[in-house]
Amino acid sequence: MQDLRELRLEPDTVSYNAAIHSCGKGGRWAVALELLQRMDSARLRPNTITLGASINACGSCSHWELGVSLLRKMPEMHMMPHTTSYNSAITACGEGSEWQLALALLLEMSEARVAPNHVGCGAAINAGQWKVALQLLRELPALRILPNEICYNACIGKFDASSWQLALGLLPSMLEVHCSPNEISYGAAISVLAKAGHWQLAVGLLSEMQLAGVRANEISFGAAIDACQRGGRWQHALSLLGDMLQMKLVPNLVVFNAAIGVCGKGGSWDVALRLLGWMVEQTVAPDAITYNAATSACAKAAQWQLAVALLREAAAERCQDQITYNAAMDACGRAGQWQLALVFLDEMKDFGLRPDEVSFGAAIHACDAARASTWGHVVWLFSRMSRMRVPPSQICLGSAISAFTKGHQWKLALALIRAMPQLLLMPDEVSYDAAINACSRGGRWQVVVGLLAEISDCSTNFFSCQ
């Protein structure tokens, strides 16, 4: 807009409309509204396109209330809301999960004799939870609207893991109204199956869509690969990735992340690293999820040096987060590199990251796994957890008791056992076993007898004194 004035050209309504539309695409809703106000001082009259673009700008940034407010002000500006204006407002409500208001606006359209269309109906369906979405889909004929792919796709995408059967049931229902499922329909259904953990059905539906003449895209493959990841089927996931390449489909970030994640679960850390390298070749920028999955894969395979290298690479790209550090500390713990695990724990604050119970658990476990006596460091870690108000987990306490046992600190081990109920945690077999060993090494047989009595009361079988 400033460039136009420098050329001694005054912006007109079309220029403002284009600028407001661009602001909406760029997530700059405040600038969009400022431009709308400037039109008044420039003696330019906004039109329905201007208001629609402004409402969209507000909705894209979850400011649905501002979008609806603009819709309400249209009569004051001598404009009557039409289908596109209502659609924009309904979409804004959907972005804010305000399904009741979205539904009210849809019904208001009929009362105002503004014909609703599939775009508005799809947006209203997308605004609600699956039960509301399904009910609205079924009531569309009462509004004289025959559901199409937009409506069905929006509804399928709202289903969760508990309602996957209904999601699958909508696919044949589409054919009953002469509406063919497309790649979006199948992709949404496969995603629901992934959430429900039904990887076999997800892979089967991917094959079914191709038999039906619907070409699978990156989203469909990504959802199926994600289903395999959740099911721990890394070989199936890699096979699907190979199918994508044969179809000359370039995997996107989501697909790569799912494939790398499933490699970690399958112990194929080397394949995970090859996929990470291939991402760079395909100019797909890794994110925190990518590095977390790759670092975790190396940690589980005891490849601590590679895990550390990945952490450093992620930090250089500003992609590291709490999970990346936790995975690197886990790798160090497995390899006996407890000093390095403590360095990473301390380093987290330099990047504005707050250690959680998993972080401290990894550090304490690393100390416990060390050959040297590290019980003093464990005490320090617990002191730090207390100062940061991080509640210890069962794993933290179990590893600490084990470390105290190795350090012949039976009093500390016993103190943790006694403190667990106050933390709403119950000592497990491993914790009792370590505490009994600590006390027996310290010659505290009366305490050992008391602990065994507690075990007997819990009706738990332990074999520490064999």
From TrEMBL:
Superkingdom of origin: Eukaryota
Pfam families (alphabetical): PPR, PPR_2
Keywords per UniProt: Repeat
UniProt organism field: Polarella glacialis
Family matches, as Gene3D superfamilies: Tetratricopeptide repeat domain
PPR repeat locations: 12-46, 82-116, 182-216, 217-251, 252-286, 321-355
NCBIfam families, per database record: PPR
InterPro entries: PPR_rpt, TPR-like_helical_dom_sf
Name of the protein: Pentatricopeptide repeat-containing protein, chloroplastic
